[in-house]
TrEMBL record, chains A, B:
Official protein name in the record: Phosphate acyltransferase
Annotated source species: Thermobrachium celere DSM 8682
Family: Belongs to the PlsX family.
Gene of this entry: plsX
PANTHER family in the record: FATTY ACID/PHOSPHOLIPID SYNTHESIS PROTEIN PLSX, PHOSPHATE ACYLTRANSFERASE
Listed EC numbers: 2.3.1.274
Function in brief: Catalyzes the reversible formation of acyl-phosphate (acyl-PO(4)) from acyl-[acyl-carrier-protein] (acyl-ACP). This enzyme utilizes acyl-ACP as fatty acyl donor, but not acyl-CoA.
Keywords annotated in UniProt: Acyltransferase, Cytoplasm, Lipid biosynthesis, Lipid metabolism, Phospholipid biosynthesis, Phospholipid metabolism, Transferase
Length: 332, 332
């Protein structure tokens, strides 16, 4: 398998990105194409042992920044590391693309440069989130702020394939993010979507309320991108706030400092459990190719795991599965 | 001031409700009407010292349960504690109503039995949430799953008055819950609402993303009821999950148990900071009367604080202020 890497995307590019890519090449036995400013990449590669690894470097002189208009940037910066990477993927020179760059640009690139899978109306950003009892995905987490029931059906279908093939969950549970447990609860979108999901999605278990999402007992949380993004951000915000406060309180006296020291293994274990870097990033589901958006602040480990995620999606043949599921639904 | 109490509503009714009400009568110097099964209430009152307190008991033979259809229940159970309490409020025999009963029934009662304030199209459920740097409100947190920009404007206006008069914040900051900081971000509703809020709301500071909500730097978070309810529930869910996990990890070894003991003051302080019972409950803004929905699981302290909230809203003359603000906006 060959993965094309946007070597210039991400807050910690190029150092951590290239380190993570080299680590992945060795550990996961994948071939790489690193795209970006050739001199910089070559210089970075010298810092690592790349003996026996299959790493190609492709020059790209431009970089897409986070503050640019994504669609504009994708159209105009034709020699950016991201656009060149997308072209290589599109031409079949790589099997997957991984970037820690601008989410908007990766979305725009996926939709305009790769195109959507035939039968999919909207592509969805699908992050893997650590839950109490295991990881889960949110589809969509921000690509489509306004959605129709049919979009949610397609999100559910793609999320189910992903949870099964990449997270390795047999018969993943799929639920509709909603503000009540009963079928008739919710807004117009969720009310209209419930029946369609019930009819078409094998693992559909009904509605899931916000309070139950962190448990991770449901592996696919389906919603419009506005709701999904809100869930994701509140999730991160509350967790960060709690640890901020605990930390500053622990530092407030000698007694509590000692207590904090004794609890180090607890906090460490907790952090590991809720460490997004373990899961890589968010996959862009619904486009004609495997595209992984690694977290913007990815370090080498997070980026390596994003490449692992790409490999699992490739090995799991998820694109093929999604197409087969689409055919099944359309036949029924 | 006289507060009418639904003595039969809530998971811990009647004991904790009546205890909280009696405590409030003494501490806050308010008069009470307790509505519910007379014999039960009289029996409960014997457990407390009510010398010198002005407490009236009004008999009501029915109880509205959480699992009933709210609108149906309000219409049919005319002798329920909640409906009788609403009637007393409507007739001017009390200045505010407090209930820990079914949220849906309280909403339906407020809208159908009291009616909306002239000029307000939708009533909004407005809970007070503890944030890192202070409390904030979410308007709406679940009364209206689908909203229009004009609803959000009215929510913002009412929330601003409430934060000012009841939370006691001078010039509260008001923000639109959204999935991006820039004006043009969001779904159709937020995109259409931004300009209207900017034009009409003094304290409007733009969009707030989910990640920043827990900080409490913005005191009024404006959104449709679907989004607000989702934010609220994810907030509660993540916090509960984190403490569940920490607790079980702390109990896993002697060392960590000792650490946990030393950190007791930290956890206690934290719990107090994030204790919803400190703030009472959610006010129903936009109806012709002061209605407080106390948390369903309210104990005496939480219920007492809900009565305090009613008193602050009464003393702050928020109904009058809301009407004046509505006039101001309509004049402009």
């Amino acid at each position: 398998m060959k993965v094309v890497i946007d070597a210039m995307g991400g807050d910690k590019a190029p150092y951590e990105i290239i380190k993570g890519a080299v680590d992945a090449a060795r550990e996961l036995n994948v071939d790489l194409i690193l795209v970006g400013k050739q001199e910089i990449i070559q210089e970075e590669l010298k810092k690592h042992n790349i003996d026996g690894l299959n790493i190609e470097v492709v020059n790209a002189t431009e970089i897409i920044e986070n503050n640019e208009s994504p669609t504009m940037a994708i159209r105009r910066k034709k020699d950016s590391s991201l656009v060149v990477a997308f072209k290589l993927l599109k031409e079949g020179k790589a099997d997957a693309l991984v970037s820690a760059g601008s989410t908007g640009a990766i979305l725009a690139g996926g939709i305009f440069l790769l195109g959507r899978i035939n039968g999919i109306d909207r592509a969805a950003l699908t992050p893997v989130i650590p839950g109490k009892n295991g990881p889960f995905v949110i589809v969509d987490a921000g690509a489509n702020a306004d959605c129709k029931p049919n979009n949610l059906l397609q999100f559910a279908l793609m999320g189910e394939v992903y949870a099964n093939k990449v997270l390795g969950i047999n018969n993943p549970k799929v639920a509709l993010a909603n503000i009540g447990a009963e079928e008739e609860k919710g807004n117009e979108l969720t009310k209209q979507s419930y029946g369609i999901l019930k009819e078409n999605i094998k693992g559909f278990v009904g509605n899931i309320e916000g309070r139950d999402i962190p448990n991770g007992d449901v592996q696919v949380v389906v919603c419009d991108g506005f709701t999904g993004n809100m869930i994701l951000k509140v999730y991160e915000g509350v967790a960060a706030t709690i640890f901020d406060i605990l930390k500053s309180e622990i530092m407030s006296s000698t007694m509590t400092k000692i207590g904090g020291m004794l609890l180090k293994p607890v906090f460490k274990k907790f952090k590991r459990k809720f460490d997004y870097t373990e899961y890589g990033g968010a996959i862009l589901l619904g486009v004609e190719g495997l595209v992984i958006k690694a977290h913007g602040s990815s370090n080498a480990k997070a980026f390596k795991n994003a490449i692992r995620q790409a490999k699992n999606a490739f090995d799991g043949k998820i694109l093929q599965d999604i197409k087969e599921e689409l055919n099944r639904i359309n036949r029924e």
